[in-house]
Automatic annotation (TrEMBL):
Keywords: Heme, Iron, Metal-binding, Monooxygenase, Oxidoreductase. Belongs to the cytochrome P450 family. It comes from Mycolicibacterium vanbaalenii (Mycobacterium vanbaalenii). This is Cytochrome p450 CYP199A2. GO terms for molecular function: 4-methoxybenzoate monooxygenase (O-demethylating) activity; heme binding; iron ion binding.
Length: 394
């Protein structure tokens, strides 16, 4: 099929209005076809569930060397874990894979649950609070900082750096360009660190140990440290804030969770499906490939629209309905196959702990006006005020 006759769209997915609510646009793209040419980006979007899953599975054809939607950042990210393919990807990922596996994190479960309980109890003593600042940010910041073992001097800047890490992975628009300086600042600061600056037996120290043992190159240490710290904070913060917002605005679904806390893991999967904290990443084709009858040439830039695939009615019944009884364990939010998110078990553990602590104490939330945080790649809130709440009678 020639480009003239291929499904195409003039939409810019990265303007403010669409970032604020991308789902109607996603529906239009899904209805247009399996692969839709985006004229403003000179790239192809994959908006449907099955095509996204197939592309994620076929890493040889859809290379992560095109993880960002611009060449400047793809060059910067060359050789990093998120922009590498096997075997290099597997070598880099293996450094922390054992520590991030569910079986390893079971030892942390009681401690993380206790810390979440303490934080939630403290926050609920206030007459009002902000979910983003007081819960969704405070908790992952504390947990990830301890696990990575970073010096305290990084704390004031880490959230800004993490946010910029995702912003620069979009097209090189004004949002990405303004974030580039923060990325340079982050790498410059992390570049001053050595093993001795990180807590003993921390994940950060394990990265440097891997270089000392010859398992990875020394120059891979700082990019690995940056990748795991940024992803471990920003996406989890967004997921927890999105979850509280959804449960507060869907009280019938919150009632189901509170009545049966055993469904919390499935309910959080529904949060991740319905409002994914990561909406898009790029891939670059390495060979001719056919998607939905369309031939994509080698070197084609492809947008993997996770947030759209999660709302595809070809795969999910009533996908625009938030339903905690759905059990969507196959959502696309954490990726799939080789490049599935390495830290997903930790993110779930943190979110389950915070939401579980809230479910024991809060029957209803009285929300103020939320403020949407706009980022080229992630979806979250910058503020979610709770003006009051109805306590749960125990």
């Amino acid at each position: 099929m020639t480009l003239t006759h291929a499904p195409h769209s003039d939409v810019d997915l990265f303007v403010d209005d669409i970032l604020y609510d991308p789902y109607p646009t996603y529906r239009e793209l899904r209805d247009a076809g399996s692969a839709v040419y985006l004229t403003q980006l000179d790239a192809w979007a994959l908006p449907r569930y099955d095509d996204i899953r197939s592309a994620l599975r076929d890493w040889k054809t859809f290379s992560s060397a095109g993880i960002a939607l611009n060449d400047v950042v793809n060059e910067i990210l060359t050789g990093t874990v998120i922009a590498a393919d096997p075997p290099e990807h597997d070598t880099l990922r293996s450094v922390l894979s054992d520590r991030l596996a569910p079986r390893a994190l079971r030892d942390l479960q009681n401690d993380i649950a206790a810390r979440a309980d303490t934080l939630v109890e403290t926050v609920l003593r206030k007459e009002s609070f902000d979910v983003v600042a007081d819960l969704a940010t405070a908790f992952p910041m504390a947990v990830v900082f301890d696990l990575i073992g970073l010096p305290e001097a990084a704390r004031p800047n880490m959230l800004r750096w993490a946010d910029a890490t995702f912003d620069v992975c979009g097209p090189l628009n004004a949002r990405a360009q303004s974030a580039l300086s923060a990325i340079g600042e982050m790498f410059d600061w992390l570049g001053t660190l050595d093993a001795k600056d990180l807590k003993p037996d921390s994940m950060g120290r394990a990265i440097f140990d891997a270089a000392d043992d010859g398992r990875i190159k020394r120059e891979s240490c700082i990019p690995l440290l940056a990748a795991y710290t940024s992803a471990g904070m920003d996406t989890t913060i967004n997921a927890i804030a999105n979850a509280v917002h959804l449960f507060a605005t869907h009280p019938d679904q919150w009632d189901l969770v509170c009545a049966d806390p055993s469904i919390l893991p499935a309910a959080f999967n529904e949060v991740l499906r319905y409002d994914a904290p990561v909406q898009v990443f790029g891939r670059r084709t390495t060979t001719d490939v056919t998607v939905g009858g369309l031939r994509l040439e080698p070197g084609t830039e492809v947008l993997i629209l996770y947030g759209s695939g999660n709302r595809d009615d070809r795969h999910y019944a009533e996908p625009d309905c938030f339903d905690v009884t759905r059990r969507p364990t196959d959502h696309l939010t954490f990726g799939y196959a080789t490049h599935a998110c390495a830290g997903q078990a930790l993110a779930k553990l943190e979110a389950h702990a915070v939401l579980g602590a809230l479910a024991k104490r809060v029957r209803r939330f009285e929300l103020g006006e939320p403020t949407r945080h706009l980022n080229n790649v992630t979806r979250g809130l910058s503020s979610l005020p709770v003006l009051g709440f109805e306590p749960r009678v125990r």
